Amino acid sequence: MSDWTHRSVQANGQRFHLVEEGEGPLVLLVHGFPEFWHAWSNQIPVIAAAGYRVAAPDMRGYGRSSKPRDVDAYGITDLVNDCVGIVEALGEKLAVVVGHDWGSMLAWTCAWTRPDVFRGVIGMSVPFGGRGLLPLAGISSLGELKPTEADREAAGDRVFYQEIWLDGDGLAAEAEPDVYEFFRDQLFSFSAAPYPEDFEPPQIVGADIDAVRESIKTGGAIVDAGSKFREALISPPDPMPGWLADNLPAYAAEFERTGLAAPLNWYRNLDRDWEELAPYEGKPIEVPASFIGADFDVATLWGAEAIQKFPETVPKLFETHIVSRCGHWLTLEQPEQTNAAILRFLDHLDGDSSQS
Length: 356
Known about the structure:
This protein is 39% helix and 15% strand.
């Protein structure tokens, strides 16, 4: 990490801290929630060594980047314009955009709405969900329903987890009394580590969509009104998994400093995002793309129907790769498998002279 450049750029009226390394075509790495540039620490040197210029920013509301107070400042149009502005601030005209979690939803949208800037896209964890951004199989996989309507459809007489995240101070109030403990348990709970070695993960590619729909309705994403998200988290054993021990100090230190209030504003705009993306409904992603999911990642499972629709929605898809024995934190839990899938796409993309 000592050779990496930390710098700030002005883009789209905001300040962005980013880490960069390497020379060559630009690859923009867009982290998810609740993360920051460090989520890509296992990918930055590998992609740079393959002949690319890599930039990993703290996104709007995170880390050392700007944190507007207005909730409406975190809509999808602003976030796409942030990514376009960062590319321009780095003196480039084109980039490959790679995103994980919320960053995947943003990366897909960048490629969908600004193919003039983003020549290729890799979505990780969350498949392309159209104007709904987060696909829920059998409920709303391409934004058929407004996000809050999809959440209500999934939850029935209970509540979708995001509702308790956004209730008042919500998740921020739950996490901030002990950020280290919260991130320890949150990262562990959504990884593959809690599952026994002989536990078979659910089928994702070719999954039965009715079964996935029922798993959403009966799984941990649907909770009782008044519940606390923190109550459902699992504490890791001692010693904790190596990937968690290696990264937890950085996550805890960053969010002890910044808190979670601003990042949660990305979720508060989902219905408005759905409205803003209406003009693109039914339009496929025009640039080459790849999807990297994980076999124990609930977000990938929820996207099973969206994956099945890739031939229509992402016609230039290179591959769907499901990382094995991995939960939600692909870049941390299984960096070698993740890096190999990223490099395969980059090799594919730059072997096509029509994209150069």
